[in-house]
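go over whats below:
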Amino acid sequence: MQTSQNRATRTFMDYESISQAMDGICGLYERKLKELNPAIRNITYDIADLYNFIDGLADMSALV
């Protein structure tokens, strides 16, 4: 994954299954939400919000 056009933002992750990789993507988004909203204890989102987060990344690829 790459969060911006800067190549230094590239991050590589390894998961044992596709299911774990999908959980990892959700976890990335949830951590970002907590970072952006530190005072809110319970944050909810729907699939459209998650898709917008993914679409906002410079790059996300998966090798399966």
